[in-house]
């Protein structure tokens, strides 16, 4: 089994030491092993175990020389879980080594990726449909969720959008906007990663921002979810998931970005917070990006090419799921 994993491990040793590594391929379990939602806390909602002889889609390694692989276990909540590398075998990792990116033609920040910490967002908008039935074992309880991917500059919005759709978007009548024609698989993934789609957020974000992206809605949301995957399989997501109910600082968040995506990445990140009684809670991160988006592997280079960002919040609590 060590020989089977050797090729993948040698490849990943050439990557930055702290970055989690998006992978593709399969993982076949050779033993019944716990499938963790969080490696550090060893949480396992539903007491999910791998089944010997079963194969699973491979998503990521937890670092360059991985101790755990993130795999997809159908029927688990959430479906993406961490398992120890010695729990099974994997075929050849198909993520190629990437050549240094050419300098982007765009100067400055080309896109903003906005991600919510959904439990905190729901504290500020408890009447939203997606906030009424939060669960401790849901994706949004321990992962960032998608707010939007915003072409820059800030005023670039509603590109060639009919007046009636622009007004519906601006006045919050999002279910009156045209339905998005997405493939079934993308629709399923988007509904998990963007809980606000229950309130029509997916239609609003496409109408306001996606129409300026220069591609179809399918490509726009595919690229946005690729970026979210890179973030949710990184040390940044582990920082938040490992500090639920505790206060963290902007400095900690930016250091986690540096650890995961290279020195200086944290300078491209802003953090938004909101008052909630006697607490200040972190509601959103905004991440500057520049370049061509083709998949999760682009994330570090896209961040590095963007301009430094300001932040209005210096520290806040990582809110647990459920209204307080």
In short:
The chain has 324 residues and is of the alpha+beta class. It has helices at 2-13, 118-124, 163-170, 184-193, 201-208, 217-232, 235-241, 250-261, 299-304, and strands spanning 21-22, 26-29, 55-61, 68-72, 80-84, 88-90, 111-116, 145-151, 247-249, 269-276, 279-289, 315-317.
Q: Would you spell out the secondary-structure blueprint of this structure?
A:
Elements: H1 2-13, E1 21-22, E2 26-29, E3 55-61, E4 68-72, E5 80-84, E6 88-90, E7 111-116, H2 118-124, E8 145-151, H3 163-170, H4 184-193, H5 201-208, H6 217-232, H7 235-241, E9 247-249, H8 250-261, E10 269-276, E11 279-289, H9 299-304, E12 315-317
Antiparallel strand pairs: 1-3, 2-3, 2-6, 3-4, 4-5, 7-8, 7-11, 9-12, 10-11
Helix pairs in contact: 3-5, 4-6
Can you offer a commentary on this structure?
It is a single chain. By secondary structure, the protein is of the alpha+beta class. Helices cover 27% and strands 20% of the residues. It has two domains: 2-90, SH3 type barrels (Roll); 111-317, Ribonuclease T2-like (Ribonuclease Rh, Chain A), CATH 3.90.730.10. The chain has helices at 2-13, 118-124, 163-170, 184-193, 201-208, 217-232, 235-241, 250-261, 299-304; strands spanning 21-22, 26-29, 55-61, 68-72, 80-84, 88-90, 111-116, 145-151, 247-249, 269-276, 279-289, 315-317. Strands 1, 2, 3, 4, 5 and 6 form a six-stranded antiparallel β-sheet that branches. A four-stranded antiparallel β-sheet has the order 8-7-11-10. A two-stranded antiparallel ribbon has the order 9-12. α3 (163-170) crosses α5 and α4 (184-193) packs across α6. The protein is globular. The protein starts with a helix and ends in a 7-residue tail after the last strand. Residues 1-18 and 94-101 have low confidence and may be disordered.
